[in-house]
UniProtKB/TrEMBL annotation:
It comes from Colwellia demingiae. This is Abasic site processing protein. GO terms for molecular function: lyase activity; peptidase activity; single-stranded DNA binding. Belongs to the SOS response-associated peptidase family. InterPro entries: SRAP (IPR003738), SRAP-like (IPR036590). Keywords: Covalent protein-DNA linkage, DNA damage, DNA-binding, Hydrolase, Lyase, Protease. GO terms for biological process: protein-DNA covalent cross-linking repair; proteolysis. Its EC number is 3.4.-.-. Gene3D superfamilies: SOS response associated peptidase-like.
Amino acid sequence: MCGRFNASFDAGVRKLYTSLNINKIVDRPFDRRFVKSADTISIVRNVGHQRQVENATWWLLLDQTEKGFKPSKFTSFNTRYDKLNVPQSAGYQAYRSSRCIIAVKGFGETEFVNKKPVHYYDMVAEEGGLILGGLCREWQHQVTGEVKLSCSVITLPPHEKLKHIHSKAMPLILPQDLSLVDSWLDPNFNQVEQFESLLQPHIPQTLIAQQIDKPMTHQAISESQVINYD
């Protein structure tokens, strides 16, 4: 996916939050139509036995600065599915003990040819919201003691139904199954082989795809398309 969300906190997404049995909101979920990589976004994770919403930098790898943190020079807003089981990769340990989800209205894709954008699309859930599978990490500043949270979205190979929109990858959209979400968010559940089926291209709910002029202005320039669930 191409580094942008529709993070509108509308009635459908609020209902999705309720269904996730979130017990405590540390930071109110962001309510923004356009969020890009390296921005602060809302994630859901388990801390101890409590499920909560927290703010995180959408860039898994951070570098310490004199007074805080900044995104690493290594691109890490996404973590590829085929890197999750590579021991030296950035997401290897997080996949086993620090998974999170990002509940959003939708996401955006940009298709590039010869490094130039040829079209932009936004996709939203036909009903409610989407749960994207992600990873998160905590960073503690060695001087100030500040604790910073970062995250990434797991990406999969392209889905046949979406290749005309984005030919390289798609985000991991988790089925809205509470028992699955419970296992995904459990930091003590490290039997990741049970998530293997999730790492195949899959659309668990119907999407509405809309071609737009540009991500910042997101004005529709064609008829919307229905992408039916698998």
